[in-house]
Design goal:
The complex is a heterodimer. Chain A has helices at residues 18-27, 49-63, 72-79, 95-98, 107-132, 139-164, 169-172, 199-216, 228-231, 235-247, 252-262, 314-321, 340-345, 373-387, 395-408, 419-433, 440-446, 473-478, and strands at residues 2-5, 8-15, 40-41, 84-86, 296-300, 322-324, 346-347, 356-357, 368-372. By secondary structure, chain A is mostly helical. In chain A, β7 (346-347) and β8 (356-357) form a beta hairpin. In chain A, α5 packs antiparallel against α6, α8 (199-216) packs antiparallel against α10 and α10 runs antiparallel to α11. The longest helix of chain A has 26 residues, at 107-132. Chain A is globular, with a radius of gyration of 25 Å. The two termini of chain A are 49 Å apart. The relative contact order of chain A is 0.13. Chain B is mainly beta. Chain B folds into two domains: 2-274, Maltoporin, Chain A; 296-482 and 493-524, no CATH class. In chain B, the strands form four sheets. Chain B has a 16-stranded antiparallel β-sheet that branches. In chain B, a hairpin with a 3-residue loop joins β7 (150-156) and β8 (160-167). The chains are: A mainly alpha, B mainly beta. Chains A and B meet through β1, β2, α1, β3 and α2 of A and β2, β3, β7, β8 and α1 of B. β1 (2-5) of chain A pairs antiparallel with β2 (11-32) of chain B, so a sheet runs across the interface.
Chain lengths: 486, 525
């Protein structure tokens, strides 16, 4: 039900005598320069500590957009993989993303790009605003805010390059064209032209932002800070994100270095520094209210009054738009009926209705996890496994893997015979543990392997143009230095 | 303030100076409620589980201050001259750019009042030449605070108030101007039995205020900034004819006809902007480029349906035939005639300008008949040379699990079928224009619409007076009774985007104009 109260005041006066009009100009000067009452002028937007704090939350709210990390980023990354079957064949809800038919004029291609760069420009505006107002807040707080903002900018570039770069970093060690690096604030029509950087340049920038973030972010916002330790960036979030970035550069030694900062050497695995992150006791807890388990490192907060928006919420996609592919991870023998992730999240197929995934069950209120401790453990496990000499099965890697597995299913443990079996086990476990959270396309592309076929959709080889997304048509038209993926 | 002076009965002078101010304040509150706790509650104040954000709150204002003057002079009601000047200030424009000065001049000559003309006056009772040239400022398209850069507020999650860059203002924003020149003549024949006017007009619109698009990688809110960034012209002929065709004691017939021709062309766009894309819902239907009418249609050309295979044939930018089959793997869906793979067809790469929603000519035709107490009015409107993009057809021939138009029965089914509907493949949203607009869904939109038919009867006074009333008229009227058009959709005179310059003439799941029947009695006491 919607009700609206409308009140319009219009005043019209006609003054037929010139003299009166002349007098009235004298006192109507301010009428010609009215000050907006519902938004702040750019002259005062950084003038108090409160306003600067709000500017920082404004950057978080940009990456939280339902078109970006609050919904569609995760959805697109998941449905490009082989574990989902599109049900609604709706072109505006990822049908074309799922079947790799997406074109440069498609709104999803346009909106995702625009949402990512809207967040980046907000970040750049805030970085510039903080520097331009050095006396409003103490320098340490200014550095912390800048670290939060640069963390958000790093996430934005990471998620943009993952779809628009011509090739994944690992395909050619970052030589291919990536997205344009916009690092200064745009507030006017000047500066429309900017060429694409290489993947190596973009990854350098992401790591530069994350290193700054790690140095300047707080270890914790304190126990009394509500959900701040989950919805604001802190040291462990920056470290965990660095691990993920290094995964996408095959820099295993660096993944291990970062991982050792936040994962203990032996079980029970937990972060020895900063916030004491560890796996939640149940597989369900990270996804249910209050969404602040010990496992949730960084999430996008949602509420009834601050939701991802129509057709953007993860729950709606996994319980309506898409169903689980029976030939995908759902059909794997490594995902037995005893697994808590199956018993908690699976609604089995009924007739022609495919199986549904209820990891997210409330589009308005479910926080969207961006970084979870389970991912951290699996990242570290994979790096350790790959770094092991010969065909050795790294024992810590296996222990990390089974920590994730046994949390959901104490009855079944992985027991790989070789290094390769271990790596494959970790990759399979990722598909189960992270299903619905936006990892499958990322994992396929960092390995530079083909997208497997699914239902009527053929396999997409890593050499194919549809392996990545096209650059949006509007960007090609309005940015003279922009070039297509070809 | 007005000054009138007549000198020696021949020189008539009228001077007006004035000022006008207009302040508009919009102060609007809105609210929404959701999460009803019990279906019993029907009122806003009932019980709901969600404390919703307000919706539709607006608080804004603008102010227009004008000074104007007009000097009218005529000599013996035969030669006319008028000068106008005005100075307008408007709050929405940038500091230092708020004021605009606009001038105009017009002249006329009543040839029929000249002595040499008197011999013809029995036939031509009025002949007047006139011309005018003038500028006015337009401000309709400008946002109230479009010149200011602002930050807005909302929330992040629960408990984190936000402030964020919400509008990039334009410090150069100022008046758009339209400069109109027209020249023509008015005439009256046989004591105004037939009157009319013919004129030529040319309107140059410069510094048009548009949302100048910017590449979205800049991250400017809305990806655009309002700017004086385009110009165009409208030119053509206007002709009006009014006739009192029959004038008898009990029966009379008056008719009026007019036609306006129109040529519209965009003459410039902002530096660096080569085109303005018009988006309808989710698809790009219109394009504005220099040298074409504003908001021209932009579609991919179709080469029909291949009779051998039933595949849709698209024409790419170079005009080559590209055969499309949704049933093939994604990578090879588009193929050239020789079977080699073609790049995917897309609106951005292969679209062409194909006609305009703006009519080449339009006008009206009105007839009034009176017979004793009966009166009948028929009012018609017509439009010629306009196109309509029938987007609903694209949707209704989409082969996902949707309803289809009956037309789908004509689809290709076997080799040799010659049809305009390709073979159907489940899931195919491309062949019939759903994924991007194609010229198969662009139709001529010429129409003649009878807008009103009204029939009335006024009772003779002798009966009315007995009832101590002054008049009684009973009437019935039909608004929009019928339309004559070859357009296959519901109504060629509709636009799903409303009255917008950049996306006109798109019919996408739009409801046609209603037909309204009215019956009534007017009683005068």
């Amino acid at each position: 039900m919607t009700m609206k109260l409308i009140n319009n005041v219009n005043r019209l006066s006609l003054l037929a005598i010139a003299l009166t009009a002349m007098v009235s100009t004298g006192c109507k000067k301010e009428n010609l320069s009215p000050v907006p009452q519902t938004s702040l002028s750019d002259a005062t937007a950084f003038s108090s500590p409160q306003r600067i704090s709000q500017q920082v939350f404004g950057v978080y709210s940009a990456i939280k957009s339902g078109q970006f990390l609050g919904g569609r980023a995760m959805i697109y990354q998941d449905v490009r993989g082989e574990d989902w079957i599109n049900v609604t064949t709706n072109g505006v809800t990822a049908f074309g993303v799922w079947n790799f038919s997406i074109t440069e004029g498609d709104n999803q291609v346009e909106n995702y790009w625009a949402a990512g760069y809207a967040a980046i420009n907000r970040a750049n505006v805030v970085l510039e605003g903080i520097d331009a107002n050095p006396t409003v807040i103490p320098a340490t707080l200014a550095n912390q805010y800048k670290a939060e903002v640069r963390f958000a900018r790093a996430l934005s570039y990471f998620y943009l390059q993952s779809l628009y770069a011509r090739r994944p970093y690992n395909a050619d060690n970052g030589a291919s064209l990536s997205v344009p690096l916009r690092l200064s604030a745009n507030k006017s029509s000047a500066g429309a032209s900017l060429a694409r950087s290489t993947q190596a340049q973009v990854f350098n920038q992401i790591l530069d932002d994350l290193n700054y973030a790690e140095t300047n972010l707080p270890a914790t916002y304190g126990a009394a800070a509500g959900d701040s330790n989950v919805v604001r960036a802190h040291k462990n979030a920056a470290i965990a994100m660095k691990m993920r970035v290094y995964m996408h550069m095959n820099r295993w030694a660096d993944v291990i270095t970062e991982g050792n900062k936040i994962v203990s050497t032996s079980a029970p695995f937990q972060s020895p520094s900063n916030i004491n992150h560890r796996l939640a006791t149940t597989a369900l807890a990270p996804f249910r209210s209050p969404y602040t388990s010990t496992e949730n490192i960084f999430s996008m907060p949602m509420s009834n009054t601050n939701s991802p928006g129509t057709q953007n919420g993860l729950g709606g996609y996994w319980t309506n738009e898409f169903g689980l592919n029976s030939s995908g991870i759902l059909g794997s023998t490594s995902f037995p009926a005893t697994d808590a992730r199956r018993t908690n999240f699976l609604t089995p197929a009924v007739g022609t209705t495919p199986a549904r995934w209820t990891k997210f069950n409330d589009d308005l209120n479910n926080y969207v996890p961006v970084i979870r401790y389970a991912e951290v453990l699996l990242n570290l496990a994979e790096a350790l496994a790959r770094q092991a000499t010969g065909t050795t099965v790294d024992t810590r890697a296996l222990a990390l893997l089974n920590a994730v597995r046994n949390r959901a299913d104490a009855s079944v443990s992985w027991n790989p015979a070789t290094k390769n079996d271990l790596i494959n086990a970790i990759l399979t476990e990722r598909r189960i543990e992270l299903l619905g959270e936006g990892f499958r396309s990322l994992d396929i592309m960092r390995q530079v392997i083909d997208f497997p076929g699914k239902a009527s959709v053929s396999s997409v080889p890593s050499s194919s143009l549809s392996y990545v997304w096209p650059i949006p048509a509007s960007e090609l038209q309005l940015n003279p230095l922009m070039v297509r993926n070809n | 303030m007005t000054y009138n002076k007549t000198i020696r009965n021949k020189h008539n002078l009228n001077v007006t100076v004035g000022s006008e101010e207009q302040k508009t304040i919009v102060d609007r509150w809105g609210a929404s409620r959701s999460g009803l706790t019990d279906e019993f509650y029907n009122e806003f104040q009932g019980s709901f589980t969600i404390n919703n954000n307000p919706v539709g709150n607006v608080l804004t204002e603008n102010y227009l201050l004008s000074f104007f003057s007009r000097v009218n002079y005529n000599y013996n009601n035969r030669y006319f001259l008028a000068l106008t000047g005005r100075r307008d200030g408007y709050s929405a424009f940038a500091e230092g750019k708020k004021w605009g000065n606009f001038f105009g001049v017009s002249g006329g000559w009543n040839i029929s009042d000249e002595s040499f003309f008197q011999g013809m006056k029995k036939v031509v009772n009025l002949l007047r030449l006139r011309a005018s040239y003038g500028q006015v400022g337009n401000l309709a398209a400008v946002g109230n605070f479009a010149s200011l850069s602002t930050f807005g507020s909302f929330q992040y999650g629960l408990g984190y108030p936000t402030l964020f860059f919400s509008q990039a203002g334009n410090k150069d924003l100022s008046w758009e101007t339209s400069t109109k020149f027209d020249v023509g003549f008015q005439f009256g024949l046989w004591n105004d039995r037939l009157t009319g006017e013919l004129s030529y007009y040319n309107t140059d619109l410069s510094n048009l205020i548009i949302d100048r698009p910017l590449p979205s990688s800049m991250g400017i809110p809305g990806n655009s900034i309002q700017a004086n960034a385009a110009s165009m012209f409208n030119r053509g002929l206007e002709f009006t004819l009014n006739g009192r065709i029959i004038e008898k004691k009990d029966f009379s017939w008056n008719a009026s006809f007019n036609i306006t021709t129109q040529q519209n062309e965009v003459t410039s766009l902002a530096p660096g902007v080569t085109e303005l894309i018009g988006t309808t819902q989710l698809e790009r239907t219109n394009l504005t480029v220099v040298g074409q009418p504003i908001g021209s249609f932009f579609v991919v050309r179709s080469g029909g349906v291949d009779p051998q295979t039933g595949q849709r044939i698209f024409l790419n930018k170079a005009g080559q035939k590209v055969f499309f089959n949704f049933a093939r793997p994604t990578a090879t869906r588009y193929q050239f005639a020789d079977g080699s793979t073609s790049p995917a067809i897309g609106i951005a790469t292969d679209g062409v300008i194909a006609g305009s929603a703006l009519p080449k000519a339009y006008g009206g035709f009105t007839n009034n008949f009176y017979y004793k107490g009966l009166d009948l009015t028929i009012d018609a409107f017509y439009s010629l040379g306009n196109y309509v993009y029938f987007g609903s057809r694209a949707g209704m021939l989409d082969q996902r699990f949707w309803n289809n138009f009956q037309e789908v029965k004509n689809r290709w089914t076997k080799a040799g079928d010659v049809t305009n509907i390709p073979r159907i493949v489940y899931g195919d949203n491309i062949s019939n224009g759903s994924a991007f607009p194609i010229d198969e869904n662009l139709f001529k939109g010429d129409f003649l619409r009878v807008r009103t038919i009204a029939l009335g009867y006024t009772l003779p006074t002798k009966y009315v007076e007995k009832a101590k009333l002054s008049s009684i008229r009973v009437y019935t009227q039909v608004l929009n009774p019928f339309i004559i058009t070859a357009y296959p959709g519901i109504d060629p005179e509709i636009s799903v985007n409303g009255n917008t310059a950049l996306t006109p003439g798109v019919d996408r799941n739009t409801v046609g104009q209603a037909r309204t029947f009215t019956f009534g009695i007017n009683v005068g006491f």
